[in-house]
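Supplementary Methods, section 5.1.

A reviewer requested that the exact input to the structure prediction be made available. We therefore reproduce it here, unchanged from the version used in the analyses.
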Amino acid sequence: MEMLKFIELERDRLTQELPEILHLRSILWNITRITDNGAGIALIAINNALEKKQNMLKRQDNEF
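The structure derived from this sequence is encoded token-by-token as follows.
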């Protein structure tokens, strides 16, 4: 209980001394979300490219 109280007091003190911390935290959280979405999009693009290549190879095998 005492440790939790100490952490809350320290958090409040830091937020009062450095109000920019809240803005930076929000910016970093949003950047993290953007990178997560970018990673997902990249994975989908790679899978699509591999699937197209595989389909092309299957068509070539069927022609011979």
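Residues 3 and 9 are 10 Å apart (CA to CA). These observations are discussed further in the main text.
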